[in-house]
UniProtKB/TrEMBL annotation:
The active site is at 247 (proton acceptor). This is Aminopeptidase. Binds 1 zinc ion per subunit. Residues 996-1023 form a coiled coil. Zn(2+) binds at residues 246, 250, 269. Keywords: Aminopeptidase, Coiled coil, Hydrolase, Metal-binding, Metalloprotease, Protease, Zinc. It comes from Podila minutissima. The record marks 331 as: Transition state stabilizer. The lineage of its organism: Eukaryota, Fungi, Fungi incertae sedis, Mucoromycota, Mortierellomycotina. GO terms for cellular component: cytoplasm; extracellular space; membrane. Residues 175-390 form the Peptidase M1 membrane alanine aminopeptidase domain. Belongs to the peptidase M1 family. The keyword Zinc applies. Residues 464-794 form the ERAP1-like C-terminal domain. Residues 874-893, 924-938, 950-965 have a biased composition (Low complexity).
Amino acid sequence: MTAKPRSSISLERTIIPIHYNLKIVPCPVNFSFLGKVSIEICIAEPTYGIILNAKELNIQTATARDHLSTSGYSVTATSVSYNVEEETITLEFPTVLHVATSWILDITYIGLVNERLNGFYRSVYTDADNNIQYLLAWTIGDFDYIEAYSSGEFNGEPVQCRLYAPVGLAIHGRYSLDLAVKSVEYFARLFNIPYPLPKLDLVAVPDFAPGAMENWGLISFRTYAVLIEEFSSHDRKLEIAATVIHEISHQWFGNLVTMDWWSDLWLFEGFATHLAYIAVDELFPEWDIWSEFVKRIQEVLKHDSLRTSHPVEVGVENPSEITQIFDEVSYMKGASVLRMLSVWLGQEKFLQGIRKFMLKFMWGNANTDDLWQTLAEECQMDVPGFMQKWTRQTGYPMLSITELDESTILVRQNLFLSTGDVREEEDRLIWPIPLSLTTADEPAARNIMMDSKEMVLKVDTNKWYKFNMGQAGFYRVSYPSKSLDLLGKTFGAQRLGATVKARPGPLDSADRVGLLTDAAALVASGNAATSSFLTLLKYFEDEEDYMVWGEVSLRLQELLSVWLEQPAPVINALKEVQRRLFTKIVKRLGWDYAEGEDPSSGHLRALAIRFAGRAGDPDIVAEARRRFGAFMANKDMSAIPPDLRFPVFEIVLRTTVGTEEYEAVVSYYRETFIPGEKLVALTVLGYASSQELVRRTLAFAMSPEVRTQDILTAIATLRSSTMGRAELWDFMRLHWDVLYNRHCDDLRFLDYFVVLSIGSFSSLERYHEVQAFFSTKDTSLYERILATCLEGIRKNILWLERDRQEVENWLQVNGYLPKGLHLGPGGDMMVETSCGHLSHADRIAQQQHFYNVSSGVHQAHYVNTNGVAQSIHGSSTTNTANSSRSSSFSSSPAPSPRRVRSGSSPNGCHHHSPSPPSFEDEQVQLLLRQQQQQQEQQQKLEEQHHLHQHQYQQQQQQHRQLRQRGPQEQLMVQLQQQLWQEQRFKLHHLQMLERQEQHQQLREQEECQQKKINEQEQQALENGMELLHVNEHKL
């Protein structure tokens, strides 16, 4: 709130709000509401106008009154102006509002209860008896609740904690309620400040855009983020614990002390994340949570190694920028640099400084500099100088180790970019780096602060040594090959002790995870060969730690994702690497859980079954399909324990050749009311491998059966196959305008949808397609994430081009790929099938037929199990008769023969055989020879292409030579170039006109429909006003 004029969306403190008295009267009949607010304000400078933040509100009256005036002076605003872009309103008064501390601003307004999961919105859910319930964002609805009280040991008296959930589901909130009771006392002790409210409520909301929101005393969650069945998997329990504790920590750090402005968002979100891990470590010491933290920060390390990243502290000047900074950099890099600071200062000193900060700024606002200054005073160290380099500089460093002799090493810091192309002007940044060096002779970490570009250290290079002990530092380390080999041999074969805390050896699981993640990042960036990472994996074959194996699986999936469109022999060979690693674990642990088994063994079993099955191990696939059949046919829950449910469902859908298993999973999704189980069923649908099922998954995700908050979950796994990627990308382009208009108000939907649709690409063709598509779009709401995706695609292209042949050589040398196998130029291998290679236009045409996109109106169809096709158009749903699921393709012309990647099914869809054949099999060898013959034909076409390219290059060379000869020749070249550019422009212009015409038709139809909707809403609002006043009078 501020007096006008002002220079930015940050409301200047010329008008200071003191107290708000808010009254809301909702009308569930027409989904509108009447609001009335009285704001006590202090006016510091005379003004004729007041600016307030507001969005989609219709102001009815606005009056300013001086409540201390003996004459009862008041003045009514004569005009209200709206700034939609900046989400503000301006109240204009006919006379000046004088300086005083006694003003009351009374405003009445009307708004709509929308369906966009933003602001005041409504949610519809079905209870166990199939009754429709209406749940409003103010948590108005029919709830069950469970209740517990904290001990009161550190709060002075017990705090009432309740968990509310839709009818019939509250029983699944016991785990989260227990976490809340413990956390309220834990943070009261940690901050030495009692919980400031008399109660704490947790509410499970069926439709909720963010995962959770830390509203003071009333924390709202997605049902999946807070409700959990008794025998859920470890990963689910850990995820919920981290989320619930994170939000409760905000009751102190975020609510009791609030950020000064959005630029300080990172501090409060990063700190809450860091605090959640500290709390989980104390409440569940057996979980080895800091190894999980090291795994978790890999995503932000990947994101922050791109030029499109941003500093932790980032300025905010426009409302659209606010949603874009709710990302991994704000949360996880913020948490990571705070952890690094905590380790550097010592955790007890760090927490003591935090307590002082909380006491100093409680019931007020604070910024990042306030915290650094408080910590510096408490710890007597230069905290601002240390942290500002980490929070105000984009990116992070890589330490390059050079062994000068047998007892001396040179440590050099450089900016790390995952594209590997750091420019000289970019590499001038210097970070203060806590090295935390451990050696074979000195197992206790040496705390060395590196604040220069280079540093020389004395180390025995004939023995192992490791930097970043404990992985608290936010940086990468590049070791010489000899040192990396020593580390791998020494620690790759370590065994797990009786408990996590009793593990032998100097390197715990967090350090071994760090060793793997650094190695994987360095090969992706070109700082090391990919073969060095594959060799390092061999040292971990006998590893027994679940956290380490989890990281192995993630890094292998990253490699396979980039290589996904390579020839089948190469992909199968990489999967064989994965299969051999994980099958060995399954053989050791088996499928069944032993009584009294260490929980970590159960987690490792589930992980190994999933990735051995994903790699196509025939025995594991067969057992998964057997258990799936028993589970679905007899509803035998014991056939698939909770930890194995996701792996088994995934394996079955990856290897299915029909629709029976797919239908079974869809039915399970519809029948279960347990949020976690519904999400498992929804997520695995994307693993289906046929084109028909991929398209059904896309249509199902957009249907009314899937909540808006779960759409992204439903389509995320489509990225795991080439067919899924292509279909998702085509679907996005086909339906972008509808999706954008429907979800542009969702905080993160657009960001994540863009990432899921394009973030996995690794070809130049796709890169250009993405650029061309978004060149005609308004990208202001997601420009940062789009730029990040484009740079990530570029990184994948460079990695693949750089190491494709080198990886094939390693696979051949190590027996995973037959030696002498000819894969042709670029590693491509093609086979002739009856499907035909569809161009982009053909794929779009086929999708248009499947989704029934006609007359410029986007209308997605899905088919239910009763053979009834349902369509989605905007927010409406219609039913049309449809005799069978296959009828969607009945009018499609038969596809012509085409070339497709080897490993495709007869219908052109990539699938995984339950039992991948060995390369020694005679039939496979015959297939490979046929593929090679086809590839030789393709090679001829490539040679012709190269010839044309060579001729073009010669022409370009001639043009350059002509430019050096004189004005006449230069004019000739310019004319030729101008003619060529005009031809390109004409083609581009025709394409643009065609797209604009299509878009114009679509806009006209949508505007016509929206006009009708607006008229209906206006009529409903007018009809409901009388009822609103009646409701207000009753209240």
